[in-house]
C-alpha cells in the first residue's frame, strides 16, 4: 500500500517569503477558477486554489504556455505537488479576505513543475482533530469543530467576480450561523429543516462577521429523519457571541434613562443613587 500523502504544514507555508522562486508545496485543488485572457496583450491566465487541509488556501497562477499545458489536467480534489514556484503578494485590487485566501499567491515560472499525486479523500493523511461544540459556543473554540444543527437557509451555489462557493445558514435553538462551502455540489437531501452534523472552522468576513467555513460536501452529514418546524426555525436569529453584547447594551440604555441623585449617608459623605423618573 502506498504511503499517505502528507500536505505541506501551516508552519512551512507561513514561513514562505515573498520573492522566493524555490517554493515547494503539496496540497489539493479545492477550486478551479478557469482560464481567461488578461491585459492589453491578452495573455492567457489559468487560475486555481489549493488547500493544505488545515486552514491555508492559496491562489495559483499559470501564464501562457504553463496555462495551456495544465488547464485540461487540473480538476477539483486533485492532490498536487508543485516545485520551484514563485511566491508573491496578492494585488490588493483582487484580494478578498472573505474568500479565506492567504494574501499571497503562487506563480508559475519557466522552471516550475507540477505532479498530480492522486485524489483528495482517498489516500490522504489522517483526519484533523476536532472539537464537538454548539452554535452558541462555537466562537470560543479554535480550530476544526463539529456541531449539530438544522438547515434554516438551504445551501446553494453563489458566484462572485472572485470565486464561487456554497452558501446557506443553520440554526440551533435561538442561534443562527452562516455557512460557506468549498467544492459545493447540490444535495437533494439537504432540505430546509434537515437535522445535520457539520465539520468546519469559524472564520470572519470583511465586515468582521463570523461564518462556518466547510471544506467539502462530505463534511455535512444528515443525522436522521427529524425535521425542525418552520416556527422553530424562525427562532434562530441571534449570532453566536453577540448575546452578551446585546445584554450589555440594553443595560447601558436602561441606566441612561435614569437620573443621578445624591443623598447624604450615615458617615456624613454623599452617596450616588440612580432612580427612574417615576421613582422620584
Quick tags:
mainly beta, 15 strands, 280 residues, 4 helices, 5-stranded mixed barrel, OB fold (Dihydrolipoamide Acetyltransferase, E2P)
Q: What report would you give on this structure?
A:
With 280 residues, the protein is mainly beta. The chain has two domains: 10-119, Nucleic acid-binding proteins (OB fold (Dihydrolipoamide Acetyltransferase, E2P), Beta Barrel); 131-235, OB fold (Dihydrolipoamide Acetyltransferase, E2P) (Beta Barrel). The protein is built from four helices and 15 strands. The protein has helices spanning 10-14, 64-70, 230-234, 243-256, and strands at residues 23-38, 43-51, 57-63, 78-89, 104-107, 113-119, 131-132, 144-159, 164-172, 175-181, 194-204, 210-214, 220-227, 259-264, 270-275. Strand 1 and strand 2 (43-51) form a beta hairpin. The protein starts with 9 loop residues before the first helix and ends in a 5-residue tail after the last strand.
Layout of strands and helices, then pairs:
Layout: H1 10-14, E1 23-38, E2 43-51, E3 57-63, H2 64-70, E4 78-89, E5 104-107, E6 113-119, E7 131-132, E8 144-159, E9 164-172, E10 175-181, E11 194-204, E12 210-214, E13 220-227, H3 230-234, H4 243-256, E14 259-264, E15 270-275
Parallel strand pairs: 3-5, 7-8, 10-12
Antiparallel strand pairs: 1-2, 1-4, 2-3, 4-5, 4-6, 8-9, 8-11, 9-10, 11-12, 11-13, 14-15
CATH fourth-tier homologous superfamily of the largest domain = Nucleic acid-binding proteins
Radius of gyration: 25 Å
The CATH class of the largest domain: Mainly Beta
- Based on secondary structure, the structural category is mainly beta
Write down how many β-strands occur, each being a DSSP E stretch of 2 or more residues.
15
Question: What fraction strand?
Answer: 35-45%
Overall pLDDT confidence: 83
